[in-house]
Amino acid sequence: MKVKKANLKPLIPKTINMDDKLNNKEISTNKKDEKLKVFIERIERLEEEKYNLTTDIKEVFSEAKSMGYEPKIMRKILILRKMDIDDRLEQEALLDTYRNALGIY
């Protein structure tokens, strides 16, 4: 009589531990939360730097005003300096044309 080897594999299907899945999701979520926190902190630092720069610029304009310069005109000069030369010349020509048409000299 031949004896068959018994199948020693358990008959219980492989179970997936739900706690492991939850832990993996928590780790993934924690990484995302940490990245979000880093982005927020970077933005906060940049906002603080922007505030400090704005304050410094206001102080420079105030100092210039105390010396007799007109901040409003200085701001216009800054805008003109940022512009492309050709664009600036075109705008000045159009402005002259409109002034002449309206009799503003």
Textual characterization of the structure:
With 105 residues, the chain is mainly α. 75% of the residues lie in helices and 0% in strands. The chain is built from three helices and no strands. The mean pLDDT is 87.
Defining key terms:
105 residues; mainly alpha; 3 helices; elongated
Total of DSSP H or I helical runs spanning 4+ residues: 3
**General form:** elongated
Order of helices and strands: HHH
Number of domains: 1
Supply the helix-strand structural class. mainly alpha
| Helicity, as a percent range | over 70%
Distance between the termini: 123 Å
Beta-strand content bin: under 5%
- Indicate the mean pLDDT: 87
SS elements, strand count = 0
Runs in which pLDDT lies below 50 for 5 or more consecutive residues are: none
Could you give a quick summary of the protein structure above?
This protein is mainly alpha-helical and 105 residues long.
Blueprint (SSEs and pairs):
Layout: H1 18-66, H2 71-82, H3 85-102
